[in-house]
Amino acid sequence: MAVKQMIGSLCPVHRPRGQVWLERMNDRRIGITVPDGEGIVDRLMSLNGLRWHRDGGHWSVPDSTGTVEDLQELFDGYVVVVDPSLPGRVAPLEEMRRELVARRYSPRTAKAYLRFVREFLGFANKPAGDIDNSDIRRFLAYLSEKRCLSDSTLNQAANAIRFLYWRVYDKRFDYTYCRPKKAKRLPIVLRRDEMARLLDAIPIMRNKLIIMLLYGSGLRVGEAVRLRPEDIDHERGVIFVRNGKGKKDRYTVLSSITRDYLTQYCSEHRPRTWIFEVGERKGHVHERTVQHAIVRARRRAGIDKRVTTHTLRHSFATHLLEDGANLFHIKKLLGHKHIQTTLKYTHMTTKDVARIRSPLDRLNAGREPAAGIGGHT
What we know:
It is a single chain. By secondary structure, the chain is α+β, with helices and mostly antiparallel strands. It has helices spanning 40-44, 67-74, 92-102, 107-124, 133-145, 151-168, 192-200, 205-217, 221-225, 256-269, 287-301, 309-322, 327-334, 339-343, 351-355, 359-363, and strands at residues 19-24, 29-33, 51-53, 58-62, 79-82, 232-233, 238-241, 250-253, 277-278, 283-284. The protein folds into three domains: 12-90, Translation Initiation Factor Eif1; 101-178, Tyrosine recombinase, N-terminal domain (DNA polymerase, domain 1), CATH 1.10.150.130; 192-351, Orthogonal Bundle (hpI Integrase, Chain A), CATH 1.10.443.10. The protein is built from 16 helices and ten strands. Helix 3 (92-102) packs antiparallel against helix 4 and helix 3 (92-102) crosses helix 6.
């Protein structure tokens, strides 16, 4: 069943396009809101007691036993969101969506989990209750061999399947055999001159400001685009980060340079809800817009490294550590839960490494230099 995440109220303003909505009505009927498209209204014509509501722009059918299940089957292939107050058994993905919402999972994690589980159930091609360990093993092997997904993505797929069966069905499988060992790769970090060139290559003030916040304050991109005017404490020189990763609030440093740019930007644009407002409805700038700006700036600056929004956060922590900042202070600024997460930056600093003299340079100390590499003329 094609069911996706919906977080928020059932108000029509919040309905994403491309979804079928099943909602309870006051007169013992089920309201049906369908997206535009050929063929979908034809499916509705097969329903008994169908009624069109011109004022609400939706259809309705009588609410009776089994109607919810029948409607989910009727709209198979579409994204279906079911009002939690409706009776009847909902599809596995809808049950999972509700559980993710109840446990306050972030929208990004919930979306990824639902996508993997939907693909898994289609791959297994059997009822959710009949799944066994061999089905999970085959699916993860398929993702690894045919889709060539990374180790971290494979672990996320395993976590998604585990959530469905543990949290929704109270059923446990053994996942130890199929979880790849997580590679310990060091993140990419920009040199300070590269960072300066990147900033110089960004012509739009809004994008430059966001990127200054990623590097100068160590913000995640989602935290930066959701900053509110009241989150900036100009006098104390700090930023209040609300509802960061793990739903934690924290404070981080505000660069004096960024503060001056922010003051100028806000005086010109006078933001209300978000500092970086866009569009007629005054929503905040999208995270992908920031990433695209970084890619274009990287090319203009002639930087060969792969640079993402998180690269700037890594550079923030690494440069602070090279400048002698306390590791526990960096942990607080970044909002890490465990100090082990912050410790990885100790492996990325080059300041101490550059001071160490290679043994090859000491090999011929005090001897006459040989002519040529091999000592031959």
